[in-house]
Design goal:
mainly alpha; globular; 244 residues; Probable membrane transporter protein
Amino acid sequence: MLAGVLLETIILLSIIILAASMLQTSTGFGFSIVATPFLLVIFEPREAIQMNLILSLVISIALIVKIKKDIDIGILKRFIVGSFVGLPIGISTFLMMNMTFLKLGVGALIMVLTLLLMLKFRIRQSRQRDMVIGGVSGAFTTGIGIPGPPILLYFSGTDTSKEKLRGTTLAFYLWIYAVSLIIQVMFAGTSKEIWQSSAAALPVVLIGLLLGQVLFRWISQELFRKLTYVLLFFSGIYLCIQQF
């Protein structure tokens, strides 16, 4: 599929994947939020979502050993338990519902909640809320291919440190992306072109991994928090304007 794409588009896509990979590696989130809009310009929704899942899974696998000391195992387990409910809901939504109205609603909700966080609204972390967020993130992953916003909103509202956020989020992504990819392939099908295009993007992802590790050491907690708000707003706006 990439053979038929203009050279300029391939270069732009490589830059976007590089930036998204660096962001995912340095913060624990961001690949889906940054890369998915551009993937959807070039590929069909099924292809864009599955490429996003494959490349994000590669990043999580590559980093899991390095970030395991920062993982909150208790929260991770509750996220996974909650995702068992959300995953089938997401794929059912992807296959059956009007995606335009769904994405408009989700995008608007993300922007409202981000504004509340910027106004110092805070959430008390609890076991039940951990499982609810895991379920919502699971539904987002199989439904629209973007699992990050629910977890970002939750962790930002509970003032979680950047180390714990990155470690726990990447560990959860290792689970959620693998299962979501299997569910997508089973119920929506796949193609050789999806895997070939993903393989072609891997060298760029690996470069992003290396640069992202360096970037993580430079990001302060305050800058991390502001970056979170920017990405959440971007994801909300993108989900809305994509429908027009």
